[in-house]
Amino acid sequence: MKTIQYIKGDATCPHAEGNKIIAHICNDIGGWGKGFVTAISKRWKKPEQQYREWFKSNENFNLGEIQIVQAEEEIWVCNMIAQHKIITKSNILPIRYESVEECLLKLAEEALPLNANINMPRIGCGLAGGKWEEIEPIIERTLLAKNVEVYVYDFE
Questions:
Q1: Which comes out higher in pLDDT, residue 45 or 92?
Q2: Nearest 5°: CA angle at 101, between 55 and 80?
Q3: Integer Cα distance of 40 and 76 in angstroms
Q4: What does pTM read for this prediction?
């Protein structure tokens, strides 16, 4: 089985060769404007536009669903809905680990025919309030178990 490759750098500038999918977590209320999504929007407009259109359409816009948006010739962005609302005093843990798992299983099915590797920050561990020690095993049982290469970026 493959292992996660950890890299210091920017997940929006993947170092890997070939087709690349940048995966990140979105909330289920259509919010886009804080955290890693700001870095995505600085590089490409389409992932945010498509996410907002998806939210407005309300077509399958649910926890555990993904949206793949082509940003460049060899780069796609995967918007994964795995966060319920946003962090507040009454919602201190918006991450939904079971939704992360559903999303990553669907992502593996999308990545394989493209022969794409997956690039991501430490998903779910920022504004979603999750813990990497919970996320890492999910990546192992989904993407890595399906033999998909995974690169996790720690921003310098």
A1: 45
A2: 25
A3: 11
A4: 0.97
Query: Kind and range of the H or E element at 50?
Result: helix 46-57
d(CA 143, CA 150): 7
Three-state DSSP class for 74? Answer: coil
We find that the CATH architecture of domain 5-154 is 3-Layer(aba) Sandwich (3.40)
Q: Are 151 and 117 in contact (CB under 8 A)?
A: yes
Alpha-carbon distance 68 to 134, whole Å?
A: 24
Per-residue pLDDT tens digits for 91-119: 989 999 999 999 999 999 999 999 999 99
Question: What ranges do the domains of the chain cover?
Answer: 5-154
